[in-house]
Amino acid sequence: MSTDWRDHFDRLVARYRRVRERVSESRWLLPVVVVLVVVGITWSWQRLEIEPAELGWGALAASAALAIPAALMSAGEFWLAQRLAGGHSTARESIRVSLLGSLGNLLPIPGGAIVRVEAMTASGASPGIAVRMTAGIGVAWVGLTLIASGLAVAALSNLAPGLVAAGIGVVACIGGAVAIRPRDRNAVWLTVAVYVLEILVILLATWRILLVLEAIGTDASWAQAFGLVASGALAVSVGLVPAGLGVRELLASVLAPLVGLTAAAGFLTAGLNQVLSLIGQGLLALTTIQRRR
Hints:
- Helix content is 81%, strand content 0%.
- The protein is built from twelve helices and no strands.
- The protein has helices spanning 3-23, 26-48, 57-84, 91-104, 111-122, 127-156, 159-180, 185-215, 222-228, 230-238, 247-255, 263-292.
- The two termini are 25 Å apart.
- The model is unreliable at 1-6 (pLDDT under 50).
């Protein structure tokens, strides 16, 4: 990593730390958030009157297993971003960056984005292009999830708010494409591939939400699961609490009643899905380490 890039990286980290410190002191933020999430999950569990024996363990295991292809899709997204930035990485390197990015998101800063920018720059891309590609793809991802959740809300209950959310999503998708700035036919097709991959990621995330809802005994449709899918992207985008902890669950509990689900079901589903994602990513990390040996 060049000295210029180290300076740029340090400034980026310092900027996010200043934002985080203005919101709250990190020494007490995480413990408070953890306590609130535990209380929320306990409340949700009691409201839904779930017995451990009644849990759909098979559905939970399936959701954890599907976290592996989700992580691989994230690696594919990084590979495409590398190509758009003029660099290249192997499949194994892309998986490694994807997993490190997931670990980075456990920090109270947008660690995943910082890891990707650093990796792109280390492979030869300029810091400006690396930041632009990472930001553009991130904005597009949030935009697509807003479209999915917004249309679900519009179809199932609140037409106007749902259409507003979907409209914001469309603007974000256009903004993402503008940030990526494909300048030739090859780059245009790579950009299209990024958006197609993001749509597949959203479909997979929705499927995992459905599985967890099934596991906790809540009947739900695909449309209702789409209504919750934006909570994950928006929570990670906050970047002020590790992995959007608490924010994801809160957003899911707010969105759930808009699509005909209980707030308790939304909160518990988001919390369980996050734990299952970490399990799936851990299994993929172990597999990757074993293959390197």
